[in-house]
Description:
heterodimer, A: 219 residues, mainly alpha, globular, B: 977 residues, two-stranded antiparallel ribbon, 41 helices, binds zinc ion, GPI-anchor biosynthesis (chain A), transmembrane helix (chain A), transmembrane (chain A), membrane (chain A), Phosphatidylinositol-glycan biosynthesis class F protein (chain A)
Amino acid sequence: xxxxxxxxxxxxxxxxxxxxxxxxxxxxxxxxxxxxxxxxxxxxxxxxxxxxxxxxxxxxxxxxxxxxxxxxxxxxxxxxxxxxxxxxxxxxxxxxxxxxxxxxxxxxxxxxxxxxxxxxxxxxxxxxxxxxxxxxxxxxxxxxxxxxxxxxxxxxxxxxxxxxxxxxxxxxxxxxxxxxxxxxxxxxxxxxxxxxxxxxxxxxxxxxxxxxxxxxxxx
Amino acid sequence: xxxxxxxxxxxxxxxxxxxxxxxxxxxxxxxxxxxxxxxxxxxxxxxxxxxxxxxxxxxxxxxxxxxxxxxxxxxxxxxxxxxxxxxxxxxxxxxxxxxxxxxxxxxxxxxxxxxxxxxxxxxxxxxxxxxxxxxxxxxxxxxxxxxxxxxxxxxxxxxxxxxxxxxxxxxxxxxxxxxxxxxxxxxxxxxxxxxxxxxxxxxxxxxxxxxxxxxxxxxxxxxxxxxxxxxxxxxxxxxxxxxxxxxxxxxxxxxxxxxxxxxxxxxxxxxxxxxxxxxxxxxxxxxxxxxxxxxxxxxxxxxxxxxxxxxxxxxxxxxxxxxxxxxxxxxxxxxxxxxxxxxxxxxxxxxxxxxxxxxxxxxxxxxxxxxxxxxxxxxxxxxxxxxxxxxxxxxxxxxxxxxxxxxxxxxxxxxxxxxxxxxxxxxxxxxxxxxxxxxxxxxxxxxxxxxxxxxxxxxxxxxxxxxxxxxxxxxxxxxxxxxxxxxxxxxxxxxxxxxxxxxxxxxxxxxxxxxxxxxxxxxxxxxxxxxxxxxxxxxxxxxxxxxxxxxxxxxxxxxxxxxxxxxxxxxxxxxxxxxxxxxxxxxxxxxxxxxxxxxxxxxxxxxxxxxxxxxxxxxxxxxxxxxxxxxxxxxxxxxxxxxxxxxxxxxxxxxxxxxxxxxxxxxxxxxxxxxxxxxxxxxxxxxxxxxxxxxxxxxxxxxxxxxxxxxxxxxxxxxxxxxxxxxxxxxxxxxxxxxxxxxxxxxxxxxxxxxxxxxxxxxxxxxxxxxxxxxxxxxxxxxxxxxxxxxxxxxxxxxxxxxxxxxxxxxxxxxxxxxxxxxxxxxxxxxxxxxxxxxxxxxxxxxxxxxxxxxxxxxxxxxxxxxxxxxxxxxxxxxxxxxxxxxxxxxxxxxxxxxxxxxxxxxxxxxxxxxxxxxxxxxxxxxxxxxxxxxxxxxxxxxxxxxxxxxxxxxxxxxxxxxxxxxxxxxxxxxxx
Lengths: 219, 977
Ligand SMILES: [Zn+2]
Ligand SMILES: [Zn+2]
């Protein structure tokens, strides 16, 4: 049971990771003047879209998401609306945090907001896919030792890696190298993406490595 | 020998300070000087080659100009004259530059681009050492050979109007002077009117030879609102008018039979894009020099002005006035100025300059014969002799002219290479002093001692066992002493007299050697003991787990230390601290959430979530404490509101920090961005600034008065009122009840009024402290005493802070109150964690105040608050206190907080002191090592050296705080049950 779950996770993560690569490569072939640095926001939203679509598809197919209690249309719609609301709120939350970290308040708001959209996609959206719009469950997963399945652990790892990646990505900004990737918010978005990819790779490996120590309380 | 951790920490810090001082002495090269107070004499000058022994041969050529007017405009950037704004605002000067009989140059000033070193460079022609910046405050008499002294010795009458730095540098040199103090930076009209009002009468008179005018207004405008402000244009127009007046009335007036007059327009330094100066950016170091005299050929069109060094002005002016060149000048004459003289005179000028430079080279570089320039000079002197021979024979052919030109070129090359060899000499370090100061002896040892003692110092006893006695009696100690002494003798005899450490008295050196050897032996034995303990009980390490917060605090400290290796991170250090502080607040927020939500969950959801929770226990100290110590029981009814306040505190802190951060832009890369303080100081927003000041002062009063006695409360309120009226008197903010605008005064009375209350509060606090120690061991009395000392310091800071910085003070107190009330107490952070947080906050507030790692941001006007004139000791103390007010107030709060925690173990003060010393030592020592490694880095003088001075001063401030800690801790030891 363990191995199969880890294998499923590894393949799911591989698909998500490849979607990030596709989102970078495909527009470069199709769209003219596409570049990660110069048309950064286009790249950013293409990555966001790809990751979101693939996440929803993969987790929908795998059936990891908590089963809805009622299969009525009304319930589904309310779930969807709630998810969208949560996503928007998390965007605003990340935006506020980034501004607190010193991003300009009035200028380059679009860039800052795009960064928070990316962060939300990499963290909140996965939570929504795995746990549903259930804040109690989120708090449980992200409090210490709150994981109850391999998916929870992977969620912890990928979300943590993305945020830490964005955090680390802010370090090169003060350097006076005048490189194109030092422009706000490119280094942070790149950091977040690289962190996310690292998390995708690290999660199955870490779980595999620690599978003896990991004992989840049954649901 | 057993000592308590606080004593141990203070001792280590003080010894480290000695090491740092020695290091600084070795690091900052002493300016090259042939001999300090001797002056060039006319009789020392070499004879013109091959003129034989005729009595006139060794004379300086006669002066080329009758009178010289030097107009020095402080912070005049090169583009204010030669750029588009010169065309717009200085039309007359620009016309002279383009079409008049003039010579224009761009003169490059050497950093530090601060007024006094620059004046020294302009008058002596030498490059003042970096350390002169520190001496900028107390400008003593310039003893070095200089142009002014030479002019006076030659009987020239000098008149000076302007910055009184000159008057202090050259007392009794001027026939007439009127100095204006440059420390009321907000005034930019009065300082210049003070100079210009003398101009008309002086220009009419005939009894002077040299007139020096130093205009300060432009510099003050730069400091207030930057180079692009609307005030700059009118000021440049005013300066243009001054130049026009001088030119029309003196220079262009041809007087038959006498020598022409000369007008020199120059600047001491430029102005950066933010309007400050001190660094080495292009706009700061490029200044204009314009020589205007009817003696020069008329220009036909604008040419790009050639680049010269600022130090070149001194020899040029000296020769133009017929004076000997100052001994320590490293400049070479500007040949264009002498173009109109005969070839023989030109060669003679270059010969004199070359001779002076070669003498200086001989004195300052032992291997001077190997220098290219010296050899070139010898060769050109010889060809000069040949030329003279032909010339004296009466040869006037074309060949002679061509040959003369060749000799001229040879001379110029020789001068250039000698000059650059001398400038290079400045980059030499006294490595032995540095190494002794840095590694072998003091700093590293102290750091290692601190590190090795960590487990003991942070133990429950807070007592460190120093095996000093056994070390002193051991054989290795004596052997080591002998070895070190032998090494010292060997190094000193081989290096020669250029080493500071060697020039110290022998007894002192050997005491130092004995001390350091003793510490080394102690260190080794401590390390051995630590290792054996570690080997015996390896299990102790494994169950020592860190919480996320600890990890963050450790990583932050290490990361910050490492970041100092990069010049950008040194320039933008505030970014590092803001970033870390933000992360810290978020981590604290997460801790608070974990604590309160878990409680809530357990209360509301009861048993069904139960099994999940116990497994999370025992992970960190905070959790342990929170479970063993029910907050509900402790807080009683108000648990709910407490909880929300505790949750809001980190968020409020975050918001507060974000606001304070946009108050002052510092650093280098983003310093030019408009910030809130510029907006407030704009003049149009005086009402807002006044309201903000009132609100901040009120908040300060509300937050500070809680724990003071009634008398102190009243004193504090009156003091804060005094602060407001001082600011209003100085003209920063508005008096609500006085609508007629008064002329800004110095506000001396108001400031002294506040000083009285500061001293009163400090005195009553000190009295309480003493009473608590001597008479009764009353903890409450002591706590109140501490708090009163603290509030006295807050009042002093409120007086010294500029009006726009008062919100920083209010924010500081607000954060301290909230964090102490809801976070540090409730979450039971231990002394070490609290200390690190205090240190981080202190660092961030240092930058919130608008400080940076650049000398230019030190607000020296603070040294004059409440003083009629410059008095050295209080000025230095006040400047240092206001610069380090943030870190010092946080340190002081730490003392108050730790000693008021009675339910805690009594050793927390010792732990706090130890951590504080360690936190300061790590970056300071690491930085000293880094700077030694990077001493040939491109930015060593512009970025790393100022930071080194800041690190040293900060360590000094921390040492003072630690001694205060120790004193309080000793108190506690006495009252300990
Ligand atoms: Zn100046
Ligand atoms: Zn200035």
